[in-house]
Amino acid sequence: MSFLFPSVLWALFLVSIPIIIHFFNFQKPKKIYFTQVALLQSVKQIAHAKNKLRHWLLLLCRIAAIVFLVLAFAQPVIPLYSFQTKWSNYVSVYLDNSYSMQNEINGKRLFDIAKSYADQIGTLFPKNVQFQLVDNAFEGTSNPMSADQLQNKISKIEMSAISQPIQKIYQKQKQLLEQVGSTKGSHIFILSDFQKSSIGELQYLAEDSSHVIYLLPFTNNQTENLSIDSVWLDEPFIIPKESQYLYCKVHNHGNNLVENINIRLIINQKQQASAVIEKIAAQSTETFKFSFVVSDSQRILPCRISLDDFPITFDNDYYFILRVAPNIKIVEISTASDSSPSYVEYVFSNESFLSFFKIKTEIPDYSTISEADLIVLRNLQDIHTGILQTLQKAFAQGTSIVIFPHEKANTVSYNQLFGGLSMQLKELPSDGRLFEYKLALEPPDVKNPFFHGVFEKIPQNLNVPSAVQTFAWSSHIGQTLLKFKNQEPFLSMFPQPNGGKLFLFASPLKPAYTDIGTHALFLPVMYRIAFVSKQQIEELAYRFEGGTAVFQIDSLQKNDILHLINENANYIPPQRITDNRAYISIPKGGLPSGTYSICTKKNSVPIDFIALNYSREESDIRGLTYKELKEMFANVPHIKVFDPQDLQTFKNDFKSQTEAIPLWRWMLILALIALLGETFLIRSLRYSKENKPTTVLN
Questions:
Q1: Which end of the chain is more exposed for a tag (fewer CB within 10 A), N or C?
Q2: What 3-state class would DSSP assign to 611?
Q3: Could you list the mean pLDDT of each consecutive 10-residue stretch along the chain, which spans 698 residues?
C-alpha cells in the first residue's frame, strides 16, 4: 500500500488529543452528601468496572476515527503492478505522425483518430502530473507541460516524412524523462499504426521494466496503397528531337487486385504521356513504359510521374530530373604518317552534342587530352613518354580510353598505360598472310547491358564483320563485348572504380586487318562507348534517406554556399565543394518532396536542379494489430496493450487496468463507524448514569 498524499500523515499527531483527555479528566468532581455509604460499596465496585471498560472502548473509537480520517485524506492505494515501488508524476506521449498514418478507418485518417486519443490522455491523470510529447521529428519535446498545454501542442502536430524505429522512439522518451529526473515509474504511451516495415524490434520494449508502457495500435485491415518506386531511362542521355523511353515501377502494397488507375508523365509542367494501369496483383510490381520527345531549348528538365490513388497520397508522385545530352569531348590521337581512313572521325563528327578533336603525336596538345571525356588511340606503334604520362593521369581521373593497336605495337608501352589492370597485351605471331587469318565475329549479345536499347532483335542471318586477331589477352579479365567465332575476345571493356573505362580492340583499325570500320555495327558500338564514357554523376532523383548527391558545376567558387529552393522551402544543406564538384548531403526528412533549384546566395538563377522524394518505406502500410501485440506482450507485466475502438471504452479500460485500487472510501467508512461507535458508547454511559439503582436509607 502507498499514499497519493503522504504529507497528510503528519496529522496523525491528533491522536494524542483523546489520549490526553482520557488520562487527564479535567471535569471537576461533584460532591454528593450521603448519611450512610456502607450500603453503596457493592454498587460502586460493579459500576466502576463497567465504566472503565466503556471509557477504554470510547478512547479506542476516538483514536480510530482520527486515524481513519487522516488516512482518507492521505488517499491510500494498492498499486496493480507488483514491480512498481514508486510512481512518477511524469507521462511521455509518442504520437506517430508518419505518412503511413494517412490510412483511414470509416472515412477518418488514423492520424486524426490517434490525435483525439492523445488529447484525452491528459484527463486520465491528476492535475499535478506533467506531460511530454514526442513525434517523429524529435524536436521541441523536452519541456514538461500541463494537460491543457499537451492538448494545444497535439493540435499543432502535422504529418511528417520522417519515420523512426521503436528503439529510437523509446530511447528518446527515456532520455527526456531522465532530463527531468524521472528514472523509473513513469507512464509511456506509444500511439502508432505499428507499421511492420519500419517499426523495428518491438521486443526491445520488454527488456526494460523501469517504466509502464501503454501501446495503442491504430490499424486498418484494408491495406490498399500504390506507390511509384523508381524511374529509369532507356539511354543514359536524352537526345533532342529523338524518341526516348522512360520506365517506371509501380508497387501494389495492398492485399487486393488494383485495376484501372491513371498514370501520367509530366515534363517541365506539361503532360507528355499518360497510361492506364489495367491491373496490378496484390503485393506485386509492374513496370510501365513511356515514350516522349524533348526539344533542345532547355538542357535540364524537371519532371514527375503521377498516379491517382487514395487515401494515402504521399507516394503518388515521383519527381526526377531529365538532362539533355551534354557535350561529350572526344579526342583521337594518331600519327601524321597514318594514311588509313579515320572511321572514328566519320562517326563522331556529325552530332551537335559530340565535340571531336584530332591530335597528332608529333604535335601533342596535352591540355586538350586532359580535358577529354573519351580518348581514342588509333594505330599507334609506340606511346611516347609525354603522351603516356598524360594518358595515365587522365585515366586515373576517370577518363575513358579506346585502343586500336598498331599491327607492330610496342606492347611494353601499352602495358605501362594499363597499369593496375592486371592484364598483359600479347602480340600474336603472323607470317604476313593476313587475309587468310581473318575470322568472323559472333553477333552481339543483346542481353549484355552494354548493348541495352541498341538492338531490338538480332537476325539469324546477320552479316557480321571479320578481323585478324593481332593481339590477345585473357578473356577472364574485363567484360567481352565482341568476340571471334573461336570465342577469343575482339573488344573488351575494363571498368575502373573511378568511373573510367578502357576499351581494347584485338586488331588495328585498318581495312587490311578488319572491315568493322565500314560495317553498320561500328556506329552503334562507338556511340555506346561515347555515352558510357561520359560520367553522369547526377542521379535522376534522390530520396530523403540520407546519402550524398554529387553535381558537376563548373562555375562554382570554393566559398559559394548552395541553397535548395522551391516554392515551399529554402534550405541550406551540409555541403562540400572541390574540383568543380558539389557534394550535397541529402536530409532524412523535414522538407516537402519536389524539384529544388540549386542556387548560390549571390545568384538566384538556378545553376542546377535536384529532385527529392519521400522514402517508400512508409508505403507498405501493413501494421501489427491489437491481437498480435496482445499476444506478443501477454507475459510482460509492464506493457499494456489497448484496443482503441472507442474513446470512452479506452478511458474506462485504462482506469480499470492501470489505476491503483483506492482505499480512501474504506478509510472514510471506517472513520464513520468509529464515530458511530463513539456516539453509542457516550449514550450508553449517560443512560447508565441516569438509571442508577436508588438506595433507600432507614
A1: C
A2: strand
A3: 77 81 63 58 56 77 86 76 58 94 90 94 88 87 85 92 92 92 90 92 90 92 86 81 89 91 93 91 92 81 93 94 86 89 88 88 90 93 90 88 90 79 68 63 86 70 86 80 91 86 92 91 91 79 90 78 90 86 87 92 83 92 92 92 87 72 82 85 66 48
Separation CA 178–CA 94 (nearest Å): 16
C-alpha 246/C-alpha 445 separation (Å) is: 23
Mark out the alpha helices in 499-595 (DSSP H runs): 522-533
Q: How far apart are CA 253 and CA 258, in angstroms?
A: 10
**What integer pLDDT is reported at residue 585 of this predicted model?**
94
Q: Is 479 helix (H, G, I), strand (E, B) or coil?
A: strand
Query: Is residue 18 reached through a cis peptide bond, with omega within 30 degrees of 0 on the bond before it?
Result: no
Q: Are 122 and 148 in contact (CB under 8 A)?
A: yes
- CA–CA dist 629, 633 (Å, integer): 6
Q: How far is residue 487's CA from residue 480's CA, in Å, rounded to a whole number?
A: 10
pLDDT at position 659 is 63
C-alpha to C-alpha distances, 439 to 431, 511, 514, nearest whole angstrom: 16, 14, 9
d(CA 146, CA 129): 7
For 679, what's the count of Cα atoms within 13 Å in the CB-facing half-sphere?
Answer: 6
* Cα within 13 Å of Cα(164), Cβ side: 21
Q: Do the Cβ atoms of 228 and 317 come closer than 8 Å?
A: yes
CA–CA separation, 388 vs 188, rounded Å?
69
Q: Residue 124: phi, psi to the nearest 5?
A: -90, -5
- Pairwise CA distance, residues 308 & 249, whole Å: 15
DSSP class per residue in 633-650? TTT-TTEEE--TT-HHHH
User: Residue 254's closest CA among 272, 281, 228?
Assistant: 281
| Alpha helical stretches, state H, 81-181 | 110-121, 147-156, 166-179
Record the pTM.
Answer: 0.71
Residue 329 identity (one-letter amino acid): K
Tell me the sheet residues that pair with 593.
Answer: none
Report residue 556 as a C-alpha cell. Answer: 562554382
| Termini Cα distance of the chain | 66
What whole-number distance in Å separates Cα of residue 476 and Cα of residue 479? 8
